[in-house]
Amino acid sequence: MKKLFAPASASLSSKVLGDLPEWNLDDLFPGIDSDFLKNLLERTDAQAKLLNTKYSGKIGNISASDLAKVIVEYEEIDESLARIMSYASLVYAADMSDQESGRFYQSMQEQVTDIATQLLFLTLEINKIDDPTMKRNLADNALAKFEPWLRDVRALRPHQLSDDIERLLLEKQVVGKSAWIRLFDETMADLRFEVELITGTKTYTSAEVFNLLSDKNNSIRKAAAISIGKVLADNARVFTLITNTLAKDKEVEDKWRHFKEPVSSRNLSNFVEDDVVHALVTSVKERFPDLSHRYYALKARWFGSDHLNYWDRNAPLPDNNEPIIPWHDAVDTVLESYRRFSPKLADIGKDFFDNDWIDAPVRDGKSPGAFAHPTVPSVHPYLLLNYQGKTRDVMTLAHELGHGVHQVLAGSQGHLMSDTPLTLAETASVFGEMLTFRKMLDDTSDVLKRRVMLASKIEDMINTVVRQIAFFEFERRVHTQRSKGALLTEEICDIWMEVQSESLGPAILLEDGYRHYWSYIPHFIHSPFYVYAYAFGDCLVNSLYAAYQEKPQGFELKYLDMLRAGGSLRHKQLLAPFGIDASEPAFWHQGLSVISSLIDELVQMDIEK
């Protein structure tokens, strides 16, 4: 495939890290101008038009077996569209600053949306079938295969609009919400951060500069934090406009669809009840003093103070001489961790490294952060990282590989039923992190190193649970205030500072330079209210891991079955074999208590030191 991005630079750090893999997207398409891509678009367009012509307006009157045949055809077309958009989004993620990849992404999005509009009739008409008729239809074996997908489609019935409005919303998305998301992504990718160092001023990408916030040198952390705050403040006008526009767009659609709260549409798409999410959020907020407040006060004492500056929140401990971890060592650590638990998981994970399914180097214009993209069951997932050799990067690799392995296993459900609700989508990723952490801890006998590792894990768990629920609370307040009128930048900053102060506690000093940090978080833009899924997943994994430690016999098979289920089962059904019920308050308390007990262990080590 033609590469649309520059190769990774041969810097000193890349020499230390070793050869970092770059993905090859040929398994999706051999190039953006390939005949395969062009022909698939044309064939899919023709298939969609034919399906529309044959069945639009008739779904409620055809037999169950014919409906099953229509769904099979729909699945094939939809998978082709998903394959095309997966390819376009991955090409774009590799270099968001490249105009050619941006144009290609936009073009594919517009063409795929036009084709998808031809298919919209199917789900709209399925939702017009009354419950008794659908129940009778599901007695047909061919249709019964798609029962989970039909269940999820029909969950949207109370919020479905007229056919014309649904088509309008879909067609306008490319020049509405999607366009604003692209503006955010490209703005972030183009940002450069000048950091004043002793050796002079250096310029960094967003991925690189945020990495400096965990540098062991306080002056580097401070300089990076100041640069981040300045650059984000300089661009606050566009980020404020994007935030206001997308929040209003969501409010308008939620109003038409009769959703009770801003989070309700997300909960429905996750197939989790509002009161379960409320219980999670309430439980975590109640534990702020016992978790984040207590830990950061302890960390401040390690730094010889009663307080930490905000740029020291993720600082390495004073006695942490963390070496750079080469890529091959990170790979060995993660795969060995997986193999100790399940050879099957490790074998699937190894495929990602043996093939070109991972893009690891930091590059100008590349999407910051990390993700696992499932593509389609007929191909395989791809992972994007920005690997810089820190322990947290190893944990990120373990996390994203967990997503990838989950996506491979769930692919057996087929295209329509392989997607896992967000509340469970973080399960395999966080479990993979836990496996890796436990192995690294078990392999370390040095007391100081164990202390550092334990503290690092606690910080990751606080970032996953406390910080994400704080993000959720920030979104909730922003969307609530936006319903009363457009928000000024300073008003959004005020909400951010209030929520951060509540969640981090009095030991963290939040200065004005931190006021605009809300603007870099992509989840607020890409997937409103996504963030609670991380906390849900962490608490779930804590409970799962406790169940594994208590009864390891047979756990692996039940765990693999859960991952293979994809989106075919809801959270109650998936967790039942483990004796776990997310609707019970004890579930959340058990998960949060695991974090608290690790802090207890750290406190005890501090006493014995």
Structural description of this entry:
The protein is mainly α and 609 residues long. The protein has a domain at 13-175: Oligopeptidase f, N-terminal domain (Butyryl-CoA Dehydrogenase, subunit A, domain 3), CATH 1.20.140. The chain contains 28 helices and 7 strands. It has helices at 12-17, 35-55, 64-94, 99-126, 131-137, 141-144, 147-154, 163-172, 177-190, 206-211, 218-234, 236-257, 264-270, 274-286, 289-302, 327-341, 343-354, 391-410, 422-425, 427-442, 447-464, 466-482, 489-504, 523-526, 532-550, 555-564, 571-575, 585-608, and strands at residues 193-197, 200-204, 308-309, 358-359, 371-373, 382-384, 508-509. A 3-stranded mixed beta sheet has the order 4-6-5, sandwiched between helices. Helix 2 (35-55) packs antiparallel against helix 3 (64-94), helix 16 packs across helix 18 (391-410) and helix 21 packs parallel to helix 22. The N and C termini lie far apart (56 Å).
